[in-house]
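fyi for ur records
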Amino acid sequence: MVLKQLMKGVKKLTLFRTVIVFAVGGLLGGFIPISTPGPPKVLNSRELPEPRYYRLTGTVELLSTEDENPCQKSADREIKEGMEVLVKNRDRQVIARGNLGKGEPEPLQRDFSIMTCNFPLEVKNLPELSSYIVQLETGKEFIYSKKQLQGKNWKLELTLIQSPRENGELNVELDPQQS
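which gave:
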């Protein structure tokens, strides 16, 4: 009998403890978060900004130190229509390609015998980067920052000087004013 009364007391005590645990838990639940916050807001594809691409245009001007048509001379040598133009990132990986158009001869100045040949240049789909390396198929490289190209409205005017070497081969040098 004593055992029965003792068991009833334990049941009441266990019930009492359970009620206290839930009551205290409920009170604390108002002050302590029961769950952790979810992940930060994830943008869906409609909220992502569109990648920016640029179009680089301009001319490669070939100056000749001879009185001949530089477009005709260049076609036999290094600079010519269809020549590949590469644009690379700062790690020298190719990010876009373009080509030179047909060269058009023009006098350097009005009523001047020295001619130039202007090859149109176009490279499409340039991704937005901080700097670009423009490389002609001949290996000549021109380095520009994004800010410089924006200042030029993404239009380049590259000038090369064509002069004969002693052995008759073509020597193409960068115009010192381009640097």
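Residues 166-170, 175-179 have pLDDT under 50 and may be disordered. thats all i got for now
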